[in-house]
Amino acid sequence: MKTYQFRVSIIGIPKLYRLIEASENCTFDDLHNVIFQSFDRYDEHLYSFFITRKDTKSMRNIYDAPQITHPVSAEEMMGYGERKESTAKMQICDVGLNEKDVFHYLFDFGDEWWHRIKVQNIKETKAKKKYIKLIKSVGESPPQYPDYDDEEYE
């Protein structure tokens, strides 16, 4: 079985990243859950992964890439004639990632927390069971909802 090491960073925040190790049979839901926990989030929102394979700053290229999205969002898109894969059904091994590939993750469609995920390496292991874990944390997580100065909105 293959094991993937992912470097997950929040776009626009330097010196902040998480290393996550996952077996190939983990779903993108599993990956979301570890990212969610590793950045100290507490309020669930919809999310999507965009399999761009290359690093890009072009939102058009990101949105044009194959999308794997939250099960509720995937179901809603089918009503509009769009077919999006569900994170609950798609496993990491299903998308054919290679070392050094980059893909993008959007958490919270309103606040838009954009992440860059790079495949650091892929190893063949003898493990048989599904597993995913945070292996390194660098930098302090930003608050999910920044405290706005009350006077600013009065």
TrEMBL record:
It comes from the Bacteria. Residues 3-143 form the Plasmid pRiA4b Orf3-like domain. Gene3D superfamilies: MM3350-like. Pfam families: PRiA4_ORF3 (PF07929). This is Plasmid pRiA4b Orf3-like domain-containing protein. It comes from Desulfobacula toluolica (strain DSM 7467 / Tol2). The lineage of its organism: Bacteria, Pseudomonadati, Thermodesulfobacteriota, Desulfobacteria, Desulfobacterales.
